Amino acid sequence: MKIKYKIGDIVKLTKEARVNYGDKWEYRVLVISSISTKYMPAKQFYYLGKPSGFHPGFDESMNEPLYEFNVCNLALYQYEITEA
């Protein structure tokens, strides 16, 4: 699994992702606040205080990291974002 972006990078949703999440994201930029590459059940994840590198929504079959952002409640895979 190749991690293309790092924490602090500024990205935006791809055109294809905006089809799923809405055009309200067309001009919004997002700052990456965490990167997950491993799954952890939600109960354990929140109990342990959201440990770095883990996410209850991570799907290993995607073979891509899952990114979260500091200004919204989205968790997006690498194919759903691009450089801003």
Give an overview in words.
The chain has one domain (10-83). The longest helix is centred in the N-terminal third of the chain and has 7 residues, at 15-21. It has 2 helices and 7 strands; from the N terminus they run βαββαββββ. Helix content is 15%, strand content 30%. The strands form 2 sheets. Strands 6-5-2-1-7 form a 5-stranded antiparallel β-sheet. The model has no long low-confidence stretch (mean pLDDT 95). It is of the alpha+beta class.
Strand element count? 7
Distance between the termini: 22 Å
Overall pLDDT, averaged? Answer: 95
Question: Over all CA atoms, what is the radius of gyration?
Answer: 13 Å
The parts where pLDDT drops under 50 for at least 5 residues are none
Helix-strand string = EHEEHEEEE
Which descriptor suits the 3D outline?
A: globular
What kind of assembly state do the chains in view correspond to?
single chain
How would you briefly describe this protein structure?
The protein is α+β, with helices and mostly antiparallel strands and 84 residues long. It is built from two helices and seven strands.
Which features would summarize this protein structure in a list?
two-stranded parallel ribbon; 84 residues; five-stranded antiparallel beta sheet
Furnish the topology, listing elements before pairings.
Layout (H helix, E strand, L loop, with lengths): L9 E4 L1 H7 L8 E7 L1 E2 L2 H6 L6 E2 L10 E4 L5 E3 L3 E3 L1
Parallel strand pairs: 3-4
Antiparallel strand pairs: 1-2, 1-7, 2-5, 5-6
